[in-house]
Amino acid sequence: MYQKSRITTRRMAVDPLDAKFDVFRREPATIRDRMHLFYEHAVPLAVDVSKRALAGLPYRAAEIGLLVLATSTGFIAPGVDVAIVKELGLSPSISRVVVNFMGCAAAMNALGTATNYVRAHPAMKALVVCIELCSVNAVFADDINDVVIHSLFGDGCAALVIGASQVQEKLEPGKVVVRSSFSQLLDNTEDGIVLGVNHNGITCELSENLPGYIFSGVAPVVTEMLWDNGLQISDIDLWAIHPGGPKIIEQSVRSLGISAELAAQSWDVLARFGNMLSVSLIFVLETMVQQAESAKAISTGVAFAFGPGVTVEGMLFDIIRR
C-alpha cells in the first residue's frame, strides 16, 4: 500500500516512531493532550511561514485587515490565529476567520473568503494561513482505514497574501489572479470523506466509493463553471488537482478527459510531501508559478479539492507571465 501511494518523502512535526512519542503508541493520548501538542508545534511554524509570505511586500501590518486560518487537525482557542496576530504585530482590530473541518478543500474556502473581503475592501489585504499537523493525531490500531491514512498524510503549512487590483493595473509576472470561485455538493456522497472527533483525537475515514464519486462528479462541476465564464476544458492551460492520493488525481484526470501530463505538478507535490490536506493545493499553485511555461502572457488554470460532503471546492485563476 505504501509503495502504491507514489509518495517518496513526507514531513512530520511529531515523529510517531520517536521514543518520546511512545506513550501515544502504547496508550492513545487524550484529545486534550493532542490539541496542546498541536498548538505547541503549530504556532512557531505558522508564524514563520506567515512572516515569509509577507517578507518583501510593500504592506504595513495595518493594511492586513483579515486573517483566515484553515486547519482540520487542531482545535484550540485562543488559537493559532491569535498567536499569529500577536507575533506578527497585526492590528488587534483585525478580522479573523477560522475554517475548521473542511478537510482538503479548506484552502479553497479560505481563499474564497479572502477574495470576497478584498473585493469589498480594496485598500486592505488578507492573509491566508493553512496548517495541518496530521502526525499529532496518529493512532496505531489494527484497522485498514488507519493504514490508508498513515500511508497518505503528512504535515505542512502554507501562507499567502491576497489583495485587490484595478482592472487596468499592470500586474507583475508571477502574480496569481483569482477570477472566480466555485463550490458544489455532490448528491448521495456523504460517506466519501468523514471527519470526526473521539476521545483520543481527530479521525478521518475515506470510503472505497470516493474515487467513483470523484470520477462522476468532477467534470459536470468544472464544465458548468467554465461555461459560466465563457470557457471550456480545452481553454485551460493549468490543472491544479488536489494531490490527495493516486486515485484522487487519476480519477480527476479521467473525469475531465485531459492528458495525464497536465497533472504533473500535483503528482510532484504528492511525491515530495504526501497529502497535507488544505496545504497541498497551495503547494501545487506555488509549483505552477515557478514551473509553468512562459510562452503565453497569461496562463489560465483551474484548481480544485474535495471536502466532506463530498464537496468540490475550487477556483478559476490566471498566472501572469509577462
From TrEMBL:
Self-association and partners: Homodimer.
Parts forming coiled coils: none
Name of the protein in its database record: Chalcone/stilbene synthase
Annotated keywords: Acyltransferase, Fatty acid metabolism, Lipid metabolism, Transferase
Keyword Isomerase: no
Family according to the record: Belongs to the thiolase-like superfamily. Chalcone/stilbene synthases family.
Enzyme Commission (EC) number: 2.3.1.-
KW Ribonucleoprotein (keyword) present: no
Organism of provenance: Mycobacterium tuberculosis
One GO process term, biological-process aspect: polyketide biosynthetic process
Pathway it works in: Lipid metabolism; fatty acid biosynthesis
